[in-house]
Amino acid sequence: MSDFNIEEELKKLPGNPGVYIMHDVNDTIIYVGKAVNLKNRVRSYFRAGVFHTAKINKMISLIDHFEYIITDSELEALVLENNLIKENSPKYNTLLKDDKTYPYIKVTVSEDYPRILFCRQMKKDKSKYFGPYTSAQAVKETIDLMNKLYKIRTCNRTILPPEKNENPDKRACLNYHIKQCAAPCRGDVTVEEYRENVNRALEFLNGNYGPILKSLEEKMKDASERLAFEEAAEIRELYFSVKSVAQKQKITDYEGEDKDYIGLAKNEKDALIQLFFVRGGKLIGREHFYFEDAAEEENEELTAAFIKQFYAGTPYIPAEIFISYELPEKEVLEEWLSKKREHKVSLISPKKGQKEKLLDLAVRNAALILSQDTEKLKRQEARTIGAVREIEEILGIPSIKRMEAFDISNTSGFANVASMVVFEKGKPKRSDYRKFRMKTVTGPDDYACMREALTRRFEHGLALRGKNVENNSNDSFVRFPDLLLMDGGKGQVNIAEEVLASLGINVPVCGMVKDDNHHTRGLYFHNVEMPIDTRSEGFKLITRVQDEAHRFAIEYHRSLRTKAQVHSVLDEIPGIGEKRRRALMKAFSSIDELKKADVAQIAAIPEIPESVAKGIYDFLHGNGEQ
Q1: Which sign, positive or negative, has the C-alpha torsion 218, 220, 222, 225?
Q2: How far is CA 84 from the centre of its chain?
Q3: How large is the angle between the packed helices 136-150 and 191-205, nearest 10 degrees?
Q4: Which 3 state secondary structure label does DSSP give 124?
């Protein structure tokens, strides 16, 4: 925005609360912040002598222009700030790496005959919700267990009480016949009787497992005394299922309330939040969240950023949230959280007692996960970035970020194809993979195929660059590689270098030299064969690139071969035109699969009448096409 004068615009800033939005020269939003006083806050970014972190200093250097939105209160500014950050994901805001939705258990208590359901969103629908839980599988198993224990219906029918239902449906589902549903649809159970079972299920969800365990023990003993061993075995299975769920609740907060504990840990680069979910006084799960490149951020700022971003997206907010740090904006955050929850929410920094111990446990878990992940990242970097550095040293090429590799596949010259795979920073970038079907080469000529594939790839790239789309296009061909890897040795390297020279492109080309067993033994670069340690990460990376190019080419060739086979046979069948041929090829992946189908299966395709289906079947089974 060339006509934007920052000094002049700073003078116009109001002293109101609001949100400010920083843009770069391309009009991209790079930062969003809130302020009690816009004039003071925004001016502080440009005032000499004010300390900023390196990250914020970098952001300031990129600001081309800014805009702002005034609000009536700091709370309104917080809500707007959060919405704009979520919508635009500005580069210089501290952003959560994770974006999860958590499972809940929903009990539809407003229905005459309530159900127990799995859901991922809490709604204002008069139902009771339990959660959030961190394991969807555990939630589903718990719901299944309760449905069996209390014979809760699983259907979605609208069922009226017997006195209101003049025509009850006596055709109960399978769950009734296997004694896993009280079948209110038949009118055999009153609302009161069914509600009693639902109340027991609610007690179970609130962590009161004692009554059901005692009841199951008594039933199991009674069945054994009656020598009903099969029934006793079924009850025993339920008993151990309940005990298993009960034993998962090891850590207890004796006040029996819902709380969240937020533990923060940092290393020299990143930060990690460990969140403990305590529901009904029991620790039901935990989850961790990353902040990348956040080492310079203040702990208070990271904690506040997490609270805003996490609780803006979760449907349930507990009454108390425990944090390690006193936050400057504590009051406005509490007000915002309380409005979302529609009940008071407190942000508490405990100094002693059980709550402080549980918060300390969350902090120590965060530090442990961050430490473990750091080691894991170091191993991953050795396999990727470290491997690229080894290749740089062997070849004497600085700063290899992007590598491309090509391979050819055909069967005796049929359907010549080429693959192009891309690795960036030692990792495959599958969105940039491309495949070529040869237009000018017939017969098994790998060198000619490679020449055509490379020519088409780089000519297309030059054409796109000529249209000035290099900086803002996602097309894989726009970006040229820092290193071109050829599956073969000297011959393929020469082909690639000739193509690049003819187009005036300067990209290093390296061949992979194979031994008598077709295993890579070294690299061919600048007319010299260079040995490479086959145990090194660099060698392993080159092998992965080579294998990936080979796999991608063969996969494409196989798909063309299958389609060609189906296509050629279908062309010979009377009554099959383009539309019906496409329908058959979509329904059956190969001619063998089509042969296995009977007339009814072929006629099930909407475009194929039964008479045509019979003709196809007869042709494939009685006309010599075996």
Answers
A1: negative
A2: 22
A3: 140
A4: coil
Q: Are 347 and 335 in contact (CB under 8 A)?
A: no
- Helix, strand, coil % (nearest 5) of the chain? 45, 20, 35
Task: For residue 2, name the pLDDT band (cuts at 50, 70, 90).
Answer: low
High-pLDDT (> 70) share of the chain, %: 86
Residue 337, pLDDT score: 93
Helix (H, G, I), strand (E, B) or coil at 330: helix
> At residue 131, what is the residue type?
G
Peptide bond before 508: cis, by omega within 30 degrees of 0?
no
pLDDT of residue 625: 37
For the chain, domains (ranges, CATH) are: 6-88 (3.40.1440.10), 104-207 (no CATH), 259-380 (3.30.420), 395-560 (3.30.420.340), 571-622 (1.10.150.20)
- The pLDDT of residue 140: 82
For residues 31 and 428, what is the distance between their CA atoms, to the nearest angstrom?
Answer: 31
Q: What is the 3-state secondary structure (H, E, C) of 157-199?
A: CCCCCCCCCCCCCCCCCHHHHCCCCCCHHHCCCCHHHHHHHHH
Burial of 49 (0-12, 13-18, 19+ CB in 10 A): exposed
Distance (Å, rounded) from C-alpha 104 to C-alpha 285?
12
Answer yes or no: are the C-beta atoms of 295 and 301 closer than 8 Å: no
R_g (Cα) of the chain, nearest Å: 33
CB neighbours of residue 533 within 10 Å: 10
443: left (phi > 0), else alpha (psi -120 to 50), else beta?
left
* Separation between Cα atoms, residue 602 and residue 612, nearest integer Å: 9
Cα dihedral 338, 340, 343, 347 in deg (nearest 10)? -30
Q: Where are the beta strands (DSSP E) in 445-571?
A: 483-486, 509-514, 520-525, 528-531
| DSSP 8-state secondary structure symbol assigned to residue 105 | E
Question: Distance between CA atoms of 190 and 35, rounded to whole angstroms?
Answer: 59
Residue whose structure tokens are 């041929």: 581
Order of strands across the sheet with 259-266?
A: 282-291, 271-279, 259-266, 320-322, 346-348
468, two tokens: 């000035």
**In angstroms, rounded to a whole number, what is the distance separating the alpha carbons of residues 378 and 362?**
24
* Cβ–Cβ under 8 Å, residues 450 and 494: no
Cβ atoms of 428 and 422 closer than 8 Å: yes
Q: Extract the tokens encoding 552.
A: 């991608």
Tell me, what's the pLDDT at 563?
A: 54
Partner residues linked to 107 by β-bridges: 116, 128
Label the pairing between strands 320-322 and 259-266: parallel
CA distances from 485 to 46, 402, 428, 436, 507 (A): 48, 11, 14, 17, 10
Q: What tens digit of pLDDT does each residue of 88-147 get?
A: 889 888 877 655 566 788 899 888 889 989 887 777 677 888 766 666 777 787 788 788
Q: Of all helices (H) and strands (E), which one includes residue 106?
A: strand 104-107
- DSSP, res 480: P
The three-class DSSP label of residue 375 is helix
Among 14-23, 250-259, 363-372, 383-392, name the one with the lowest average pLDDT: 250-259
